[in-house]
# Entry
Amino acid sequence: MSVGNQVKDEYGRIIGRVASLDVNPNGTIGSLYIQQGDGRVAKYPADNLRIEDSQVTMQSSTKTKALTYCDQIPLIWRKNQTIRNLLDKNKISPDVYDDLHRNFQGALEQLKSEAQTLVEKIDQEKARCERETKDLNYALVNLEIEHEIGKIEEDPYQGAFTAIQECLKNVNREKAELEEIKNKLSNILLGETAVTDEAKGEETSQATSETEGPAEAQSSLPEPPVVVYVKEIGQSSA
# Structure
């Protein structure tokens, strides 16, 4: 990969060309300076770039963050439940449990807050895709009108038609992927909340039982939140 290489996004749309590299002392690329179509040069972290030979692809930071939350939230939730189980088995002291529980719960609440903010951003990006789809459909209609009345010749018409159709395909794919990742993230948030509420109910029930008589200790580790994929209804792609 070198200066001058073209940079595209995940949907094949051209972002610009590599203008310069920010190379770390150990030889790894920390970021790229990309000259965009309007002539401006912007700096992008290498974490959002996939470099294969001479092809540079800009990956969606929204999708990358969402997938990270989808991994981290269930993991921290499970760790939080694990230390509770260890406390019940007298394998850790209450003081150690309280300290770890505060840390895990704080990290979990922070991730959930960030994830909810990201869900709202995904909705904004989906709305952008819908606007682009509408604009592209109008572009096709106007192209057809101008072609039918003889204002646009066949070759230019075919080229423009193919280009608009390709844009429509890319926008529809982007919107579908945004819907998928939003559903996954939303259901993890809902699942974690539901399971946590259920666990709190079980703790209350167990405390009540202990005042009435001995209760059997729970020996199995709670399962992490169940993710259910839900397809949004009422929206259709062009």
In short: The chain is about 60% helix and 15% strand. Strands lie at 6-9, 14-23, 29-36, 41-45, 49-52, 55-58. The first helix runs from residue 61 to 88. Confidence is low (pLDDT under 50) at residues 202-238.
